[in-house]
Amino acid sequence: MTTVDGHRFRAVMAAVCAPVTVVTTTGADGPRGATVSSFTSLSLDPPLVSVAFDRRSALLAEILDAGRFGVNLLGQGQDDLAVRFATRGADRFGDPTTWFTDRGLPRLRDAAGWVACDLDRVVEAGDHLLLFGLVTDLGRTDLPPLVYAHRTFGTHSRFAERPRPLITDQIAACAR
């Protein structure tokens, strides 16, 4: 089996645009959370998402114990939250982080989206574990998403320019 150099692999993967999320759970000592960019939708029926954690992650152990997790999809301008939740030893849920409990899970106020999950299964994947979450609740706002690529934060460059349906179209869609 041929393997590639880890530094080269990391450099190439840095060019892949990834969503920036803060994954949370409630542990024995209160709220827990960490910045995660390995999040994706997996299935519509049933609604499943996946997120990957390094096997040494303290948050991973808390999620495995709780059997549940939340995914806060960060929006443009929330770089500070991403950095805070990625910093070891930081008071992640202290001031100025604003959060509340939703469905028994810590949820960040003003996040662009929210997904609450029950842990469906765990798959071994090299030095990580891939968690599949069965979606039990979700929501979103109309904010540009925060993404990470080339070791910097940004957003989709044309998000604000996209066409938006007229309110009458939205009302008609709800009436169907």
UniProtKB/TrEMBL annotation:
Q: Does the keyword Oxidoreductase apply?
A: yes
Among the GO molecular function terms of this UniProt record, one is: FMN binding
Q: Which domain of life is it from?
A: Bacteria
SMART domains for the chain: Flavin_Reduct
The UniProt entry, under Gene3D superfamilies, shows:
Electron Transport, Fmn-binding Protein, Chain A (2.30.110.10)
**Does this entry carry the keyword Metal-binding?**
no
Question: What InterPro entries does this protein map onto?
Answer: Flavin_Rdtase-like_dom, NADH-dep_flavin_reductase, Split_barrel_FMN-bd
Return the protein name: NADH-FMN oxidoreductase RutF, flavin reductase (DIM6/NTAB) family
Q: Which organism is it from?
A: Amycolatopsis pretoriensis
